[in-house]
Amino acid sequence: MPLKKVIETKQLGRIFKNGEIEVRALTDIDLVIEEGEFVAIMGASGSGKSTLLHIIGCLDRPTSGEYYLDGVDVNGLNKNQLADIRNQKIGFIFQSYNLLSRTTALENVELPLIYNRTGQFTNSKELAQKALEQVGLADRIYHRTNELSGGQQQRVAIARALVNNPALILADEPTGNLDSTTSIEIADLFVQLNNEGKTILMITHEPDIAQFAKRMVYLRDGRVLTDSLIEDRSTKESAIKALENPVTT
Amino acid sequence: MRRFLKIFKVAFHSIYKNRTRSLLTMLGIIIGVGAVIMTISAGEGATMAVENQISGLGTNLLMIQTKSEHKAGINVRMGRPMDKKDFDVLQKNSVYMPNLSPLLAIGAQAIGPSGYKSTMVYGVSYDYFYITSRELQAGNFFTEEDVRTAKKYCVIGETIREELFPGQDPIGRQIRIDKVPFTVMGLLTEEGTGGMQDMDDIILAPYTTIQNRLYGHHRGYTMIMASALSEDHITNAKVEATELLRESHRIKDGEEDDFEIMTQIELQEITGNITGILTILLGAIASISLIVGGIGIMNIMLVSVTERTREIGTRLAIGARESDILTQFLIEAIVLSLVGGLLGIVFGVIGNQIIYKVTDFFIPTAFYSIAIGFGFAALVGVAFGYFPAKKAAKLNPIDALRYE
Q1: What is the pTM of this model?
Q2: Are residues B288 and B340 both part of a single domain?
Q3: Phi/psi of residue B178, each to 5°?
Q4: B84-113 pLDDT tens trace
Q5: How far apart are alpha carbons B158 and B50 in whole angstroms?
Q6: Neighbours of B216 (CB within 10 A)
Q7: Do B204 and B339 reside in the same domain of the chain?
Q8: Numbered residues of chain B with Cβ closer than 8 Å to any chain A Cβ
Q9: What is the ipTM of this complex?
């Protein structure tokens, strides 16, 4: 049985118009991501990776091409439908966590369920609690976000992305604000979640974090430069070892 | 519904998180609602006081005076004044008006042994005391005989006594009204300050004396006061007086009266209209402070939207619809103004009590003033909350997420 395609783009393009000037942010992106994959998207700044993430995350629309998310043709949806798609099929993780301040971890994780209109999550508190346990924060449920460390805050954000059981987890530079050790822990958490069957798409510009993924897509000037499987994936142990023994040249 | 409740909770939470700022924002609404309640109630209190004062004059009173004409923006009584002939016609023929009295009003300086005061002096007949049902706390009224013989007697109010005879018994003492000496016969029972006019700042004397000494005969009477048999006969009395005077003045059918008869009920209606307009005016002025308060709310909501741009971006990214964001911020503005409105009601009611305690001027807290204040606060919340909420809902999620 062929694996389900979570993401499928065909000839995807995005042009920004600023008066007379046209900027081609993305050109002819053909990308298929199947269920259970863990993909890292890399590229220099200006390579179009943020634009791609916004389109995949249904925050932006392509100017050309087709995009199917979990079998749904996203191009034909209106604003409210896009909001519902984001709510039901995508879990967002941001570089700066974007948690509500002075609000408990539990309430933060519950947030996507508040906006859910399907009525299937009546036990939002339990689900939020379970998601927090999943990311190893069982003992921090009632802590306010400003009482948590950066790594813990990002874990809360990850729990928030998991709580609605989305088809896809989208992480935008999830380790950008964290120190190396914490970054490795977060990356390792992604690996664990992936092992449990979650499909993850992660944007990063840190090669050692990308090395935790199964597959790497490299963008340059809005086009896919390389798309390859990662041979020697990092593990938590190997990464920490590398951290402790920097290679001297 | 559950979702709505949660959004409601979110709004409350955010107000509570910024309680100092929220309270300061609410202050505009608190003061506005309080001011609306207090001014409307004060207007109501004034209306009540005036009504009491008028009904204190006697409930079946008629005032007959020459026709007033509207000239150069003011009402002036230009016609031939009421005079002895009119008075005699009415007294001789009237069935419905058992008591009639001429009234000559004159502003004069009253000088006593220990003080002086500018006041109103009314020249009246003995019947006046029946008509207005005023009573004495000391001494006697002047008699019909005193009126007939134009004795220089007078009856004074409590305010005059305080000024002219501080701490003394005025009965039998002499005062001078514009240089004419009068003997004080009686002291009127206090009516109190009705809010508008001091009912005790008054001197009553026989109209004959006033005519002889102060007013002159050629000017007739200021008015003729009468009382109907009972309240039910007021209309009859008015019709009767109109007919008698038309006949006496030889006014042909189809021509207008050259006099005016005002009953006590009409007087009440007129003053009621005036105080009503006053109340509306005061309320409108107070409402302006509510609008200013609303602008305060809008201002803070705009700041709040800007401050929470990233939060809004996050909410949009995890699946909030525009309408969810709109609802959240609108509820926040409405809750701010409603809580402010409730506090304003408390503030207004307590303010009324304080004014009553301090000035002794009773202000009934009108229920409708509370309704108006609160309703207006809610309206202000919606009206001034909508624009910031719309602004929040229309944010582009990508830009909002990047906002620093």
Answers
A1: 0.73
A2: yes
A3: 45, 55
A4: 888 898 888 888 888 999 999 989 999 988
A5: 19
A6: 12
A7: no
A8: 3, 6-7, 10, 13, 17, 310-311, 313-324, 397-398, 401
A9: 0.93
